[in-house]
Amino acid sequence: MAAAVAELCVTLPRALLDPCRLDLPPGDADGVLPVQLKLAAGQVQQIRPAPQAVGAPLALTPLVDAHVHLDKCFSWTAHPNRSGSMPGALAANRLEAEQRSLELVLERGERALDQAWRYGLRALRSHVDSGGAAAEASWEALLALQHRWRDRVELQLVALVPVAHWSTPEGVALARRVAASGGLLGGVLGPPFSTSRSDPQQLRALLALAGELGIGLDLHVDEGGSSAGRGISLLLDQLDQLKPGSLSVPITCSHSSSQKLLPERAQRQLADRLAGHSVAVVALPSTNFWLLGRRHGLTSPLRPVAPLRVLQQAGVAVALGGDNVQDPWFPGGDFDPLELLRLAVPLLHLAPWSRQGLMPFTSVPARLLGLPWDGVVREGCPADLVVLAASSWAELLARSPQRRVMRAGAWLPPAPGQQVDPRLASLGAWS
Ligand SMILES: [Zn+2]
After folding, report:
1. How far is the CA of 403 from the centre of ligand 1 (A)?
2. Domain 63-368 is classified in which CATH homologous superfamily?
């Protein structure tokens, strides 16, 4: 067990410092403030301003990833989708799923959680393919990992099946098992949409089932470049028909990508309706930018991704997720929240020096996952920090910084990539 740290001087974003501490000054132009933290018994005991400590390392609190897929991660090498197309990803995913086993999911999930923990994540929500032969083994493996990692990384699980499945007796039985294990109901609501009335009926049945079991919903909605915003509209139409207050389970729309293809006025109307029903959105830029917007070998100027600023301005809770990590849907990713933040800055115009640029990685996903701590540093909060080898946001954006992650006042072992890779070390000494 590593020795506990008693005092630490770091530069924290003011947005991650107790808003009730009016004696602490506002942040500088970059929204940050050097502070001296006194730590004891795994908690922050005291926070004092440290105006002389300009240049102290930039620090965040451990981050939260609201959307991943642990059952299929790290499968790209064996099941690549070099076309980068949605149909190609689906076909490779089907082949990979045929070979998925308890052992494979255990191995992938263990590696993912270990990396996530060392990189500075404290909670993940993972969707789990829950139809087909591998479903039962995947749930068994991920529930075992959820238990094994419960004091280090909180893992939430969402059952991912076609929405129609929840209207079948098998779907209802699965929903009861998911509810008993503390999970959520998921599904896919995206193009191609049926022209019959089946989609609204199936959605109604799913909402009723979630309400009856009292468990949350997290749907893959509008992950595509056509039928802009149709899935969101279908869901909102069903929510409009419910008696006010009759459904109190949390609802999340993951992706919501094609909403951005609508004219701005229509985007804002959907955003207002989402806010009105307290539906949250998880934006997933890496998979969206990789798979969507391909046009006959060219890149469309329209890149479907959740219209984050429009949603935030309407008051929708928006979090970010890494989504696919080295699987047929996206070859990159590594469960590193700082890499996701660095990617989101140019892709989504998210500026980490603003509250709205930082909250989608910290407090908003913490709220979506129902975590007991919102990630804001207050006296008495966990002594949990991600301390960076960077003194400014510009340094963080210039290169992926080395970091040390503290949990309960003690430093964790280093993250992957923090030492010289043996493949490079073996090339000989530096001159
Ligand atoms: Zn996903």
Report:
1. 28
2. Metal-dependent hydrolases (3.20.20.140)
